[in-house]
Amino acid sequence: MVNTKFHDATLRQQLDNILRKQEAAVRRAFMMSINDIRRNVTLRQLIDAIEAGDIPRAIRVLNLEPAAYATFSEEIRNTYTQAGAVAMAGTVWRVPDMSKAVVRWDFDNPRARQWLLNWSSTKITGDLIPGQVSAVRSAIEAGYGLGRGPRDIALDIVGRVGANGRRTGGILGLDDQSVKWVSNMEDTLRNDPRSYFTVDKKTGVWKSRFSRSDGNVDKTLRKLVKNGEKIPEKLIQRAKGSYTDRMLQSRGNRIARTETAQAVNAARLESSRQGAEATGLPDNVYIKTWRHGGPAETKARTDHAAMNGVSVRGLNTPFTLPDGTQCQYPLDPILPAEHSINCRCGYFVEIDYKMLAT
Predict the structure, then answer these.
(1) In 3D, which of 287, 300, 284, 281 has the Cα closest to residue 345?
(2) Same domain, 252 and 317
(3) What are phi and psi of 53, to 5 degrees?
(4) Sign of the torsion formed by the C-alpha atoms of 317, 321, 323 and 327
(5) Which domain holds residue 340?
(6) DSSP-derived 3-state class of residue 101
(7) Beta-sheet pairing, 311-313 with 286-291
(8) pTM score, two decimals?
């Protein structure tokens, strides 16, 4: 490994700006995709399928297909193309004899297009849609187990129409584990509401065990539980709906942060590879340097903190993390979830022109 203190502050700032702007855009696009799925469900057909006990038909009624995530996919494409163009323009390119070269970002490059196809196949077809199918199946089975009617189960899936005319509280958009947490919350409120709270032995403060529950709803629940009163059905539905919405918001944040950063980091490498092909510079003049994502990453991923400032020579040389995991860059798709979800790490690419001059 080679240590370097190279920092291109201008390019770093430009890529960070894209990351911030596009993270918000990707989050909105993900929520738009989920709302589109909700909005286009024919409730009567869903209820009929659930009433017939036909879970596969209920899932088909939801029309969970790649086209539903088109807006989300487009924002990832925008992120990738913007980051690639900025990285290309922000790099000083020279050919081996050190004369200046003009190199432009080419999204039509087969490798660049393949990245987006691979991303869509992995994230949309291989993750989001199967995850939705599993989550819906879990919600229906949980509803059956609780003895809920077909209409209530259907509304648990697509959400209930609020005063603003929009559906909220549905599990569409959540993964299977989140749906199980929602089901566990509801079961707790119905059958053992006292265990919904933990009580600090020193302060006597009551706190919900469900970290994303609604504080205002919790106040009402706490009063009822302390007095030993029965929790009204309407309040249970309000608590569950608010909790579900918060879970979806959290998932949208997590997906936006992870997928946007992955697209920016992937585009950074692709721009360097295109530049290498155009200029004929040898691989060993490139130096990649890991940049840790900051304090929020330190506690959760000590391996990433240890990588801060570590460099490798060669575009195709992998980073090796302390636990032995290898990757081309932070959030490389080959990384397991524990090294990628919510990761904020980035990296720099330096061209060691001094090496050519020796």
Answers:
(1) 300
(2) no
(3) 70, 20
(4) negative
(5) 282-358
(6) coil
(7) antiparallel
(8) 0.90
Please provide the DSSP assignment of 228-248 as one string.
Answer: TPPPPHHHHHHHHHHHHHHHH
Domain count, the chain: 2
Closest by CA position to 247, among listed 336, 168, 145, 155: 168
Is residue 276 domain-shared with residue 128, that is, in the same domain?
yes
DSSP strand E in 113-272: where?
160-161, 167-168, 197-199, 206-208
Closest CA to 112 of 87, 141, 139: 87
Long-range contacts of 148-151 (CB under 8 A, 24+ apart): 150/47, 150/48, 150/50, 150/51, 151/47
Letter string b/e over residues 229-265, b meaning 16 or more CB atoms within 10 A of that residue's CB: eebeeeebbbbbbbbbbebbeebbeebbbbbbbbbbb
Averaged pLDDT in 10-residue chunks for the chain of 358 residues: 50 93 97 94 97 96 95 97 96 92 94 95 94 94 89 94 80 92 93 94 93 94 95 93 94 96 97 96 94 64 91 96 95 92 91 84
Measured in degrees and rounded to the nearest 5, phi and psi for residue 2 equal: -115, 130
| Whether residue 145 sits in one domain with residue 59 | yes
Q: Count Cβ atoms below 10 Å from residue 203 Cβ, excluding itself.
A: 8
Give yes or no: residues 247 and 348 share one domain.
Answer: no
Task: Clarify whether residues 257 and 355 are in a common domain.
Answer: no
Residue 97 class from Cβ within 10 Å (0-12 exposed, 13-18 middle, 19+ buried)?
exposed
Burial class (CB in 10 A: 0-12, 13-18, 19+), 102: exposed
- Measured CA to CA, the distance from residue 177 to residue 94 in angstroms comes to 51
User: Nearest-CA neighbor of 123 among 249, 229, 260?
Assistant: 260
DSSP percent split of the chain into helix, strand, coil, nearest 5: 60, 10, 30
Domain identity same for 38 and 79: yes
